[in-house]
Write a structure and sequence with these properties.
The structure is a single chain. By secondary structure, the protein is of the alpha/beta class. The radius of gyration is 13 Å and the shape is globular. Strands 2-1-3-4 form a four-stranded parallel beta sheet, sandwiched between helices. The protein contains four helices and four strands; from the N terminus they run βαβαβαβα.
Amino acid sequence: MRILVVEDDLELAAQLCAALEAAGFAVDQEHDGEAASVAGTVEVYSAAVLDLGLPRKDGLSVLRDWREAGCTWPVLVLTARNRFFFFKQKTAYEISW
């Protein structure tokens, strides 16, 4: 399985990638929203780990780009935002919990 990790905190991204690679996954990483939007629409992934607070383009916009491009793989969203924010936004981006 190939997983895309999108996280601008380089230390956290390195830890996530190391853990996923140790579990046997192939991992690609991007550190800003623009690059993640492109990567997610031109490469084939089994899943993604996506931070919402990204430079250049926010995570929800990245997710919208992926969905509009037909990407249906699961996305684990990382955020420090509260649940109320997510509740208001989730249906627009096909997010469920």
